[in-house]
């Protein structure tokens, strides 16, 4: 069986390590970047089974990458996370609905490993 990878775009190395620690026991790999300009290359990976995108990356907004997901991988299960409140998450949900992203979920940071595992179970068809 080929490796299944979760794409992670987040500028907090501790968050990326925490996600990887939850993903590893599920037999999933992590491909992470903190650079929105590198995310399109990750999005092109054939082994990607889900994406986790942070709303804010330093001074940059990660929500703009939802345009790429809508255009290239609208069925890719995508989790948008934010430590900046519900407004960003609501904006992500509205964008997904209007641009045909079929499987978008949102979580406010901090969230539990149980919440992340629930997202991944649905993403990987283990729900």
From TrEMBL:
Residues 5-124 form the Response regulatory domain. Keywords: Phosphoprotein. Transmembrane segments: none annotated. PROSITE patterns: RESPONSE_REGULATORY. The modification 4-aspartylphosphate is found at residue 54. GO terms for biological process: phosphorelay signal transduction system. It comes from the Bacteria. This is Response regulator. It comes from Elioraea tepida. The lineage of its organism: Bacteria, Pseudomonadati, Pseudomonadota, Alphaproteobacteria, Acetobacterales.
């Amino acid at each position: 069986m080929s490796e299944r990878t979760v794409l992670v775009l987040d500028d907090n190395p501790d968050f990326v390590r925490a996600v990887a620690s939850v993903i590893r026991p599920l037999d999933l790999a992590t491909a992470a970047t903190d650079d929105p300009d590198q995310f399109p290359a990750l999005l092109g990976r054939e082994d990607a089974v889900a994406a986790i995108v942070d709303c804010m990356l330093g001074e940059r907004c990660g929500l703009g990458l939802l345009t790429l997901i809508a255009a290239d991988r609208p069925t890719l299960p995508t989790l948008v996370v934010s430590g900046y409140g519900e407004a960003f998450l609501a904006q992500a949900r509205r964008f997904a609905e209007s641009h045909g992203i079929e499987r978008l979920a949102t979580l406010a940071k901090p969230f539990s490993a149980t919440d992340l595992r629930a997202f991944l179970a649905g993403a990987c068809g283990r729900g």
